[in-house]
Amino acid sequence: MALSEFELIARYFYRAPAHDDVELGIGDDAAVVSVAPDHSLVMALDTLVAGVHFPADSRADDIAYKALAVNLSDMAAMGAHANWMLLGLTLPQLDEAWLDAFSRGLKSLADEYGVVLIGGDTTRGPLTVTVQINGLVPQGQALKRSGAQAGDLIYVSGQLGDAGLGLQLALRQIQLDLPPARRDYFLQRLQRPSPRLALGRALGGVASAAIDISDGLLADLGHILDASGVGAEIHLEQLPVAPEIIGLGQQGWSLPLCAGDDYELCFTVPPERGALLEARLRSVDCPCRCIGRIETHSGLRVLYNGEKVETDSFKGYRHFD
Amino acid sequence: MALSEFELIARYFYRAPAHDDVELGIGDDAAVVSVAPDHSLVMALDTLVAGVHFPADSRADDIAYKALAVNLSDMAAMGAHANWMLLGLTLPQLDEAWLDAFSRGLKSLADEYGVVLIGGDTTRGPLTVTVQINGLVPQGQALKRSGAQAGDLIYVSGQLGDAGLGLQLALRQIQLDLPPARRDYFLQRLQRPSPRLALGRALGGVASAAIDISDGLLADLGHILDASGVGAEIHLEQLPVAPEIIGLGQQGWSLPLCAGDDYELCFTVPPERGALLEARLRSVDCPCRCIGRIETHSGLRVLYNGEKVETDSFKGYRHFD
């Protein structure tokens, strides 16, 4: 098979630049864009490998969706608007039906958030999808991991553990008698996470630190604590968790704490900005819940109804051994 | 094997941002950089797959060098300065000696051109290297493929076909009695191409179109012709080619014309800018040679000492069937 790069791009991915800020899109040696004044450029890259990050027989549109969604989630965690993406697509063969579905999955999510595909590379090899995403944030407003201070309140968006339960359902690692609609809900949360871009932007000038929850709350909140040189206390009973996960008892707590893949945001807010946060949250349709507080003393302490919980026992819990 | 992303990055790739324009480097959800005013952002991405773009047992420093060099070449072809890169590295296992060599290969070339690694992703899977490169160009000065006009002169930099001969030597597809130094020269041209960044920047406001020669002169000049809606005539005897390739006779012409991997620049210049071009070329240490002229009539005509040459006969010649 000779994978003809230019035919492939022209057939499936080429669209004329839809935005004024794209000076030159797909079809040259590189893309050229203009960056709005008084903004900083925010850049991330994530790779998904078949057989590692998704089963090799996953639907192509689901693969494309997720490859972009995890990158958009990084933009959300920085408080950025996502503008442009590049795609590195490695394919074992030229399968037109697969490519058609892939490009539709990518386009649907890109269009929803106003992201333009401006370039990339297609190569032959084991199925691997790399999305490189570029966004803008007003200068000085990027949400870093390193700004949390003792006394700040810790919040999470949405609901945690849904994607982890979805994965266990998909892999038949758990027996749960669920109505089809609920089963579909958890699978969707795994395959089609909603990047919290509006929330991230609403947190500019409000949150002192932020991260997206890709590896589980304990690991990702741990990154904020490490980067900020602080500790924290969180309260399990305040975690936003589906009733089905509550029903699993103690074993269920590993899902919100360690399973990851939720792509919700975890962020910290100084208490004096509480009213500002409330006002900002009203402008975005994304529930957030306070789950604890940043402390001077390093380490992460997890309480359940006031009692200390040993987090070592949670499956998949690696980063705080 | 659990590939611990953060340990890996910290050990091999982390370096504090060396440039004022890097607001936030490796270690957050995304990198943040500031773009100089009155400049456009130029972005490209190229993927190299083991067993496809390089033998799986290639030296790690050579793989890293080439993965970055081909991206720098795209910046050169746009007339841009290369500033920041992201790395997507998929590895079958955590091999410290390999990673150490890879990071040294990447760093040596990055330092030579002042490029900073600001982010990326490491994943487990078949060996694949994606470099995403970002550069800046003064607004309106990007060198596109689409600006060539009838009457413009066609130039190429350096020497064409060296990398193609290097590949044939590496694969033992050709028997040539070469002195060791000459053999090494051709292998180096294959494994360590010199991206023509200084030349590309010198061509800003001079060249009407430009491309880097990655797929061979016929294919890449063809892209300029297609994008510009013009044709051209080139003269084989004017091509800058090594004497060893000349010695191969007619069979040798497929190397400069079709083998690719030279990463020289092909560009067009309106004849009235000839003196300006000469002045600019004196400022960069890179020989360039005029090989032909753009014409109104579409298609690419190849002459040798005034006689038309049938290019269909050249091996690997696909794009002008």
Automatic annotation (TrEMBL), chains A, B:
Entry binding sites for substrate: 53, 261, 317
GO terms under biological process: thiamine biosynthetic process; thiamine diphosphate biosynthetic process
Binding-site residues for Mg(2+) 3, renumbered to this chain: 29, 74, 212
Reaction(s) this enzyme catalyzes, per UniProt: thiamine phosphate + ATP = thiamine diphosphate + ADP
One Pfam family this sequence matches: AIRS_C
Binding annotation for Mg(2+) 2: 46, 74
Transmembrane segments: none
Domain PurM-like N-terminal: 27-137
Database matches in HAMAP family: TMP_kinase (MF_02128)
Miscellaneous comment text of the record: Reaction mechanism of ThiL seems to utilize a direct, inline transfer of the gamma-phosphate of ATP to TMP rather than a phosphorylated enzyme intermediate.
Homology family: Belongs to the thiamine-monophosphate kinase family.
Summary of the function given for this chain in its UniProt record: Catalyzes the ATP-dependent phosphorylation of thiamine-monophosphate (TMP) to form thiamine-pyrophosphate (TPP), the active form of vitamin B1.
Name of the molecule in the record: Thiamine-monophosphate kinase
Species of origin: Candidatus Tenderia electrophaga
Lineage: Bacteria, Pseudomonadati, Pseudomonadota, Gammaproteobacteria, Candidatus Tenderiales
